[in-house]
Each structure stands twice: as structure tokens, then as C-alpha cells.
Amino acid sequence: MHELPVKDGIRNYVVSFVFVYRNNFFGLLTGIIFGLLMSHAGATTYDFHAKMFLFENFQLMIVIGTAVTVAMVGVLILKRLKVRAIATGNEVDFVKKPYQKGLMVGALLFGIGWGMSASCPGTIPAMIGEGKIGAIFALIGLLIGTMAYGLLQTYLMMARRHKALNLDDENKAKLHCPDNSCDS
Predict the structure, then answer these.
(1) How many domains does the chain have?
(2) Most buried by CB count within 10 Å: which residue of 22, 81, 107, 127?
């Protein structure tokens, strides 16, 4: 019977664990760095959010504008260089999403929620990490809103499908009785 020494067994286990969960580790690491940067920039401070919406302090607007600019330049560079994803090795693809009617209403609701909670969805995990209890309520509201959106979308999809099936039944009936003689 062949047995590995305990030290080799532990090393093999750790290596295989890291290999299997490397994407999760990378995501956790980048999330921690992102949270630290947001905290350092003041994006996790309720007062900065309130003062931004009251146009009293422009620090967060500068941070957001800088982030948008860096992201635009970064995406442009990634597209030109045809970069591959670290986790999967596939070429990074930037697909434009089609415009949807509800985007304006959704943006309005997003802004109202942000103004009322003084926290953007991206800052909530960092706020929780800092121990800010109010962020837990914002997270609960975010989850309830997301669930409500999913339920509404499912309901609307099912209603459209039901309407289409009813129209198909009516059209079939009209094909069989074009002059409505079947009704009598």
C-alpha cells in the first residue's frame, strides 16, 4: 500500500483547492481592493453622499467622473488589444445591450433609492465591511427591489405569452369560420 506523507497530502490538497477556486480568490481579492479604494475615496461615507446630492461637496462626483473616465479608456484599450480574460482565457467581449423602455423609470428609481439610502449598490458591501448597520437595510431593500423586478418581468412575460396564445386561438377560429357562421 502506497501512502503519501502528510505534508505532501496537505500540499496537494491546497494546490488542488486553489486551482479549483482560483476565480473566486481573484474575485475576492479584487473586491477587497475595490472596497478599500471606495472607503479611502469617501464613497462609503453617508455625509459625502448627502452633500453630493445637495451640491455642497463635489468629492464623490469627482471620484465617479474619474472612475467613468478610467473605465472608458480601459475598455477602449482592452478592445484594441483584444485582451483575454484572466479567469477563463476567452477573449473579452463587449456586447452592447439593446435599449429597453423601462430604463428611464429604472434609472429614476435607482436615483431615488440612492438619494434616500445615501448608498450606491456598489458601496453597500464596503459599508457593511466597515460595520455600518444602515447598509444592511439598504442591502435588504436592494434585494427586495431586485426580486420584485424579477417577479414583475416574469409576470409580464407570462402575460404576453398568454395573450399571444389567445390571439392564436382566435386566429385559428377565424380561419375555420371566416364569416362568423360558426357562432350560430
Answers:
(1) 1
(2) 127
The string of pLDDT tens digits covering residues 4-19 is 677 777 777 777 777 7
Q: Which domain holds residue 133?
A: 99-184
167 belongs to a structural domain: yes
Q: State the Cα–Cα distance between residues 67 and 71, nearest whole angstrom.
A: 6
139 is a domain residue: yes
pLDDT tens digits, 67-95 = 899 999 998 898 888 888 876 778 888 88
Cα separation, 138 vs 123, in Å, equals 10
